[in-house]
Amino acid sequence: MYEEYKIIIARKESKDVHTFRFDKTIEAQPGQFVMVWLPGIDEKPFSLSYDDGFTFKEVGSFTKELSKLKRGDTLNIRGPYGRGFPFRHKPLTVIAGGMGGAPLNLLVEKALWHDDYPFPDITILYGGKTKNDILFWDEIEHAGGRDILRIATEDGSLGHKGLVTDLIEPDKNQMYAVCGPERMLKAVAEKIYSKTKNAEDIHLCLERYMKCGEGICGTCSCDGYRVCRDGPVFSYAELLGNRHFGVKKREKSGRLIPI
Amino acid sequence: MRLQLDPPILNASGIFSYIDVFERLEKMGAAFGGYVTKSIGVNLREGNKNPIFYEDYNSVGLSNPGLQAWTDEISDSRLKKPLIASIFGFELGEYETVLGALESDVPRKFAAVEYNLSCPNQTPGDKGSLAARFGDSPELVKEIISTGRKLTRKPIIAKISPQCDVKRIAEAAVDAGADYIACSNTWWPMEVKDGKGRTVLAGKTGGRSGPAVIAGNMIVVGTVYEAVGKSAGIIAYGGIRSAQDIIDYFKAGASICGIGTVIKDMGDTQGVVRCTKKIWSETKRYLNKNDTTLEKLRGTAHV
Fold it and tell me: Does B2 fall in a domain?
């Protein structure tokens, strides 16, 4: 069930964010995730940021261990799992908050470089607390002869001073792909939906504590959805009226805690 | 007391686990006649680290949000189908505490109680697994069930381990007032290694479920039926994938069937709905074709 992947690139994106890229690609939709197993330690889900790699932040003991791996080391991975972002013949606006850029980077990569991804044009709105949270797309500010990247930071250290939601110009003919902290997802979706009334084209990538990754245990439930199977990407239409979205999630024990 | 389930199909405890997931399955029309919670205990437990599941072996380690969190969640339940509360304890008194809390705080929100007497897994710090502590002791099983019998008039289900003297344990549970014997918890906990010889499950050993256990579990159901089948119902858990499996279990003596691990092959929630409906419609087609009912089929494999 586990496959071995050799780390070809181990890049430090910032003081606590790392990207690993592998010797082979993983056939996956943007938004899908893999389970990464460190034998004897633990196993955690990571969304793919490249078709041959993922990006993670050191937040606990597992990611601390992961960060010690070097070029040439191997990782045990199963997956990909879940449902990713859909494709539409529509202009795409990508909205990311901090580490939420990771799964969206794979979407942007595919939209810009792969012929079978039909997005005619693309805009990226990227927000963080400071410029240190802006981790992706520094190389692609210009594409198709226009600026496609707009940045917002809360402290004003890069781009617009304020929130990424300030940058949104709701348009009912766009598809939106959004990933970041859940309260940001909710604020973004509400802002767009209040103007466009088009919930079908707002796609949000959720994060929950995951154990089995295969829909069995229910730990990742979000008011009825098993995020590992039904998500992690949901349209806002699927989340309207959801009692957990933006409000609560299960922790490791299964207990519901506020988000 | 017997459960009225339409269809007579449950989820096995630990599959889907939580009320919100059951509510969505019910709303979407999944062919479950009732839902069994993940086992409820007194204290919050994180359970084992990952991996908890590998090639149909699992070692979740009784993760548990804690009793208060459970009664809060159950009290908010909008489920229309019967909810069965699975409960566990490491001491006899813990089963009593859990059932006491459910009968105090949410008495109208659950229809039956399933005693998990047989989880083969444990986490660091546990005083042995439930299967090791209670599973093979008719005296302890009798004591636990008879205490529960005083606390509730609802149906009591005793979920047993397949690795015990199933006849004696089933008899002890029924003597003490159990209405159903659930056969079985996971099988023969083993340390599973990957191709490189590394232990995969963080809990080291894990019980087996899924299609591999169905032939053995058919014998457990048959044995328990011969022992207590006249006075108690039997819930068959283990490897059910098809209508044929359900029919075989009823013939062996089951009166209710439960679907477990196999749901991992059913995809998203719509997939679970589609697959469970297919299993149930094919079961009904068989019954119609043979002009029979599941009640009539029960135990007919015993001649």
Answer: no
- Please indicate, yes or no, if residue B181 is contained in any of the structural domains: yes
Nearest CB partner across the interface for A252, out of B63, B66, B263: B63
Cβ pair A61, A114 in contact under 8 A? no
Residues belonging to chain B with any Cβ–Cβ distance to chain A shorter than 8 Å: 14-18, 20-21, 23-25, 27, 38, 44-47, 49-55, 58, 60, 63-66, 69, 73, 194, 198-200, 202, 261, 263-264, 266-269, 272
Residue A171: the pLDDT is 96
Q: Is residue B4 part of a domain?
A: no
Residues 6+ apart with CB under 8 A from B162: B183, B184, B185, B187, B188, B213, B216, B217, B220
The interface residues of chain A toward chain B in range 236-255, judged by CB-CB distance below 8 A, are 243-244, 250, 252-255
Domain boundaries, chain A: 3-81
Tens digits of residue pLDDT in B8-46: 999 999 999 999 999 999 999 999 999 999 999 999 999
Q: Over range B104-112, report the average pLDDT.
A: 98
Residue B77 dihedral angles phi and psi, to the nearest 5°: -60, 135
Domains held by chain B: number: 1
Stretches where chain A sits below pLDDT 50 are none
> Nearest CA of chain B to the CA of A164: how many Å?
32
Strands B205-208 and B57-58, by their bridges, are: antiparallel
**What gap in Å lies between CA B238 and CA A53, rounded to an integer?**
38
Supply the pLDDT for residue A139.
Answer: 74
Which pTM was predicted?
0.96
| Chain B contact present for A257, CB below 8 A | no
Q: Which residues contact B67 (CB under 8 A, 6 or more apart)?
A: B40, B41, B42, B43, B97, B98, B101
Give the ipTM. Answer: 0.95
CATH number at B263 reads 3.20.20.70
Mutate to test the interface with A, among B21, B23, B78 (most CBs of A within 10 A): B21
> What is the spatial distance between Cα B76 and Cα B70, in angstroms, rounded to a whole number?
10
What is the extent of the structural domain holding B90? 9-297
Using CA atoms, how far apart are residues A96 and A146, in angstroms rounded to an integer?
Answer: 20
Per residue in A80-99, pLDDT (tens digit) is 999 999 988 889 999 999 99
**CATH 3.90.1210.10 describes domain A3-81:** no
Q: Which of residues 85-124 of A touch B (CB under 8 A)?
A: none
How far apart, in whole angstroms, are the C-alpha atoms of residue B49 and residue B292? 47
b/e per residue B173-184 (b: at least 16 CB within 10 A): bbebbbbbbbbb
- Residue where the block lists tokens 């015993």: B302
Domain assignment present for residue B303? The answer is no
- Taking CB atoms and an 8 Å limit, are B53 and A215 in contact across chains? no
